[in-house]
Design goal:
mainly alpha, Arc Repressor Mutant, subunit A, two-stranded antiparallel sheet, 11 helices, globular, FadR family transcriptional regulator
Length: 242
């Protein structure tokens, strides 16, 4: 019987906080207080080193951790740009996916969307402010106008995001953003299915109507009709991979 390798040397004392973690906390605080938002350029590494009183390798390692989480983009010869909001009370969690096939990836993504978007619609119906509901309606109007002239993929995405944001729960937004590349594929139609998601279009209006009349159960049900309709299309188009 093959013996297992010794693991006695793999564990050691736990430090309360590493230097780069402390730097990340300080960076998050600075970015928040300096009102640096997504798309803005961060100060140079040299300036960050001076402000934080740490070495350049320490700052660079902290920025690399942020880059791995998709928080910043490090552009060679240009600098470091913020991609996601950061702050003292914002936690970014890495998402790791084991890719099997595009079909299974999309169906797995739909399962997560079903849980998140169904509940988000119900929460909006129950507690979203009147201003937020107006914003959702405007996003829906833009989507329907774009659909009428042939392509509403980006407006469709923005409509769904308006509902996620209207929950008032930052975790909904962060979870969706952490899996944005996977989720956004539904609007890019990577499987090249003709008239993809066309059958789900009417449910966007009925979902909003339920939100507007403050009916959580119906809002959830209409949201799930969107998800289930898309899932059915994928399974019918690729029955051997679903």
């Amino acid at each position: 019987m093959k013996s297992k390798p010794s693991t006695s040397g793999l564990l050691g004392p736990v430090k309360s906080q590493t230097l780069d973690s402390a730097v990340i906390e300080a960076l998050a605080t600075y970015v928040e207080e300096a009102r640096i938002g997504p798309g803005d350029k961060l100060p140079s590494e040299r300036m960050l080193c001076e402000r934080l009183e740490v070495s350049r390798p320490t700052v660079r390692e902290a920025l690399k951790r942020w880059e791995a989480l998709g928080i910043v983009e490090m552009r060679k010869g240009s600098g470091v740009y913020l991609r996601k909001a950061v702050g003292r009370n914002i936690v970014h969690v890495p998402l790791v996916l084991s890719r099997s096939s595009k079909v299974k990836d999309l169906l797995h993504g739909l399962q997560v969307r079903r849980a998140l978007e169904g509940e988000a619609a119900a929460i909006c119906a129950a507690s979203a402010s009147a201003d937020r509901i107006t914003m959702i309606e405007k996003a829906l109007d833009r989507m329907e106008a774009a659909h009428a002239i042939g392509n509403s993929s980006e407006e469709d995405w923005e409509y769904h995001q308006s509902i996620i944001e209207a929950t008032g729960n930052p975790l909904f937004t962060q979870i969706i953003q952490s899996m944005r590349d996977l989720v956004h594929q539904f609007w890019e139609n990577p499987l090249q299915i003709p008239n993809f998601a066309e059958a789900s279009f009417p449910f966007h209006r009925s979902m909003f109507d339920a939100i507007a009349r403050r009916d959580p159960a119906s809002a959830r049900a209409e949201a799930l009709k969107i998800i289930d309709s898309v899932g059915q299309e994928i399974r019918e188009a690729y029955p051997n991979e679903a």
